[in-house]
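Lab manual, section 2.4: Encoding a predicted structure.

Procedure: take the sequence of the chain (395 residues), apply the prediction step described in section 2.3, and record the output as structure tokens. A sample record is shown.
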Amino acid sequence: MTLSRRLPGSPAIAAASEIAPGRYPDHDGFAMQELVMANFLAQWDLDPSLIDGLLISPAGMAVGSGANIFVHEWMTDSLGIKPRYAMTVNAGGATYNLMAMRAATTISSGLADAVLCIGAGKFPKVGAGAGDTMAKMVSDPQFEYPYGSFIPALYALTANRHMHDRGTTREQLASVAVSSRKWALKHPDAIMGHKGPITVDDVVNSRPIASPFNLLDCSVPCEGGAAFLVARGDIAREITDQPAYVLGFGEYHDHGAIALSSDFAAMGAGNAAKPAFAMAGLQPSDVNMAQLYDAFSINPILLLEETGLAKPGEGGRFFEDGRGAPDGDLPVNTYGGLLSFGHTGDASGITMLVEGALQTMGCAGDRQVETDITLVHTYGGMMADQATLLLGRAP
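Recorded output:
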């Protein structure tokens, strides 16, 4: 059964916008979220009274200064609304796909007609202690953190396992970063866009971080945020000529500590993708574009394979052959990804969802490609919380 049959009113993303990634030293977490909302309302000229649902992520989580876990209450005051449905949501990078899913089901149930989803993040510079703070957040306090766990090293475990099990090469990892940079050159706000194109040799010869990763294999810490509105189909069509309809979705939660992952080379991503395709009545071959969470260069390879867009062991070759780059047959991370657009802290997962929505809506400017079906896959924690979302131009 397709989602449009399950969810009367064909929920769709009707509007989306993002502030430029960078540094906002004069804004705390909530001030960032208010900035995101000011930008959103300026771009879309929506009356806040239309919004009767609100989902928002905690303000300030990544900073380590204590998150506001009731931030939805503050935002309702800021917007001057009294929604029928509101919640503060957090699942790391998976948060925003999960928001879109919750919004769609909420609209289907009649609990709301238009659900606003907001995220903003402040990602301190790694040298300022952010690396240790984040490692402590995601590591087992007894068996991992005391032994010096470090985020790049934890991801390196996955990369090395994937390389061993599926034959992925160092050059193929580098090809992911090269592909992302090509897309970033087309996005006016991408942090690394002004740095120009890079080659596989540039990536391999950049500063070593944690084998097999070098500096250009790693995402770029920054600050930013975005918002999107999921609305009942008829409302969405009043806002925009081409909404991004929510066709299907799935989620899966595999582990807490990375040492307890079921499979280092897969991380459970396929368990989220399969129900999404089943709900939408689609196959991986129907997908025209993919937005894949890319904290490190291994992630798009792994996620491409686990979502069924490439066969196991062929994800690296996919990027090596340029298939995800501009003019490739299956564009991947058309905004530059976290590797070149920027890794916006707590809001990192919303950037690829907004890009997927804008591309599906035909609002992506110079980087616009043709897509009828877009897959967005994000995850939270140490690849623990997996979430797949399928968007389309028709319900």
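Check your result against the sample. The longest strand covers residues 12-22.
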